[in-house]
Amino acid sequence: MLMKTNTSGVLGDRQDLYRPEVDGLRAVAVLPVILFHAGVPFFSGGFIGVDIFFVISGFLITSIIARDIDNNRFSIIDFYERRARRILPALFVVILACLPFAWLWMLPMAYKDFSQSLMATVSYASNILFYIETGYFDVTSAQKPLLHTWSLSVEEQFYVVFPLLLLAILTFGRRLTLPLLAGLTLASILCSQWLQSIDPEAGFYMIVSRAWELLAGAIGALALRNRSAEALSRHGDWLSLAGLVLIVGSLAFFPAGGQTPSLLVLPCVIGTVLVLMFARSGSLAGRLLSLKPLVWVGLISYSAYLWHQPLLAFLRLRMLNEPPVWLSLAVALMSLSIAWASWRYVERPFRDRSRVSRRTIFAGAVAASTVIFVVGAAGQLKQGFPGRLSDEALNTAAIFKEESAMFQPCLSTERNYIEPQDTCRHNKTLPETVMIYGDSHGAAISLEMAKVFAARGTGVRQFTHAGCMPVPGLESSIPGESCLRFNTDAMSYLDSHPAIDTVVLASRWTAHLGGYLFNNEEGGNEGTIVRYMQLVAGEAPRDDSAARIRSVSDLVQQHIKDLLARGKKVVLVYQIPEAGWDVPAYLSKEMYFGLKHDVDLSTASAVNKRRNAGSDAMLDGIGTHPNLLRIKPRELFCDTLQQGRCLLQMEGRALYIDDDHVSQLGASIIAGRLSTVVASRL
User: How far, in Å, CA of 552 to CA of 546, rounded?
Assistant: First the structure.
């Protein structure tokens, strides 16, 4: 996840309002998020800096607007001029700096996505684009150079409406200002909570669920204008210190995998409002936040935020392996030096009206936006300029797009749920007696498995859902996912079609059980997203504890035993060895950058065995049964052609389409074992 720093720039425009403790507060927010994105341990809550900066922005901009309205000098043109001076010059410089590195280092699909983000950024719609792009097979956010611009779009969408709304309220209904804003804030909070329960990604990116944080700052600014200096001095020191404690505590203890915005960030939002309202130079919180190093970082925080994400993203794009923490940290610290130069030579000059006129600002913004949009459109229309790669590298890079397109139409997701009657049927002219039941790992091998059953005169019904273990009574730890519904539908379909006598169960058992993605300990690390299966609410422990794992394991075993007791034949596909690396991207970059390796790409067999020990034990614990057939992909991929290694590539061809889903070549190897097992047992 990414954070958003202050983009209002109003303190820089109105020196009489300058408060060094606010710059210190910016530093408190921006430093943890930079370290979080660099992968430094102990900063798991760093990404909630976005919430802090939305509050700061709402507070400062409302202070300026309210003061201008009271002094009869508010102008919407002046307002947007200040926004343009603050935001656009540094943003354009960062975008232009990204272009050559994107051209040199990005594979076609990534360059095409980057081109879309160029167009969305200058259209202030990047939050919508990145929401649309999110999905089960989405590229990791760490490799998207402009992902952080989503927050700029959220703010600009907010400020299209808010100044005029505030002007109308203060002009025609001043007494209703705080009640009306409080009502809007409550509505946004409720909307945020609702979206977190049905579509967390929408809750993260959309303005309707972020507005309450900006409005909280606005309410704080307006409430402050209605208080007397005596009231502030009476309680301000303690309130500001309490606010700082709430902020630091939230950054330090925000739970891994916690959703934002949500009620989990409410203490941080309240703390930020308290600091903005009550911290002054004489208070303890004000003195702490006014320390010179913090103020310096706060002054350059907007540029630091703009630069750190592209630098870290291009570092990861250029390297074959996940960069070590020390290198990411060095690049993150380098972003502060670049940010200082950006602040000194870009931000400050363009905010000086005596040096750059209004006409120049607006004309330059239109011209630069047009050029960037055209460059983005060209990259989109030209499909990422594939001619930059050799045919061999291009064919390898295209594996994911080509092969995932083969099975994705049969794969349910929470956004594209496939109703039971619309699920895929393979071998349509043959009697339907087999069900392939699983998640995306099951979908990836379904076509090759269907060929095996076709040879035996059998039709196949496919029930697969991304991110869902094929066991009724389980749901995902990610709110809004439809696993419970999917499993209920699958079992209802099985009940209503007694001719189906064989069920193939295939899943990413290990990740669903333990909750963590794969690190192959050789530089291939999928990331730190926590996502696991749990029993339905109220029936068992619902976290990543050993108790939850035991409860899920027991239910998996009971489910399979129940299928066997009903007379079904069960083909149990154990965990497919994971890669850790995005295999086609890794191989394509080797070719593109002129690198070679002497043997086929592989991972350590011992690491794979240790990784999957829990899920193997769970499935082994079912025991034997004449109708239970086991397929263990580890026996097919590991310790075969290379002793002690699990193959990711065979004779130059990728066995995977990404970091964990097998290619059709890999699926054919598993299907080959299925053919042998079926011939001998079914």
Answer: 10
